[in-house]
Protein: [NiFe] hydrogenase metallocenter assembly protein HypF
Organism: Caenispirillum salinarum AK4
Amino acid sequence: MTAVAEARDLVAAEIPLPRAVPPVIGMGAFLKNTVTLVDGRRALVSRDVGHTDTPAAVAAMEETARRLIDLAGVRPVAVAHDLHPDFPSTRFAAVLADEVGAEAVPVQHHHAHVAAVALEHGHDGPLLGLALDGFGLGPGNQAWGGECLYVDGARFQRLGHLAPLLQPGGDVAAREPWRMGAAALHALGRGGETAARWPGQPAAARLARMMDRGVNCPETSSGGRLFDAACGLLNVHPVAEFEGQAPMALEKLATAPEVLADGWHIGADGVLDLRPLLSALADCADAARGANLFHGTLAAALAEWVGRAMERAPAPASTIGFCGGCFYNNVLSADLQARLEGKGLTVLRSGRLGPGDPAVSLGQAWVAAQR
């Protein structure tokens, strides 16, 4: 294979960098994994090798990293990876760093997301970032996913997050939105309604007891799980057949978003609490109206939350990046963008790499290169 053919086969995107950096490779996320090598004034982003939950995908990720290094003809000075110690990309980062004599550098998942969208726009300075997705490990081993961050190169500060919900059953809740609906009822003090509300789910009665006792119910600030909670309460695909099925169906139902008055609270600690909205959805018998209430209220709440976060930022920032899989939702993205631009902010939305996890490796490499 010629060098040109090799590059075409391996590289999905070449992105210019705003300034020269030393060679660093980013090993990407667990889902929709890509690998990125930055060097000088360019970033080479590999094709998506898929979810790294199979031996074949892990082998493809490892081969991709080595091929990228060979293609660029450089020796990385750092190998960036996720904070999660059990991700195959994290484990391989340690192996690769040892092979090439580089430093293994952990980069928080949502920090990487924000850095990636900034880089796609050539933004080289402080910015705010809204990261809404399913999961990213926080520095204290928390399950993050609904984050408002201040990002300045290799540093970030968490300015706020969504109020946590329980995730009953752990990861299975991401595939069964009725469980997150039950978590919302629990947060509202209405957990006793769980069994009657989902009579077709054999685990419903047991789930309520699990949440009361805190058994196998980790907390999460995930925006993705908030969407699932809305879907569960509105009975929109209470059990999903594939990833994102329920939230995508909820988006299609939202034809005229509306804002629920007093549908949220923002604490002095920067926590955005949407329990008033969830309470309204729990009592809404019309899924289409519920979808409109959810999208409109969430956009309005996020806009106010960002305004409050700007006051908490360590330095002025008038640019904000949207990132994470929830921003595939165009109803939410467009409404929120209009609200923030109306406040005078510059909004950065993802480009070729999309808002999801394929962009993470780019952000990892860029953050690590600035240390």
Residues 137 and 143 are 5 Å apart (CA to CA). The first strand starts at residue 11 and ends at 26. The chain has two domains: 3-106, 109-355. The chain is about 40% helix and 20% strand.
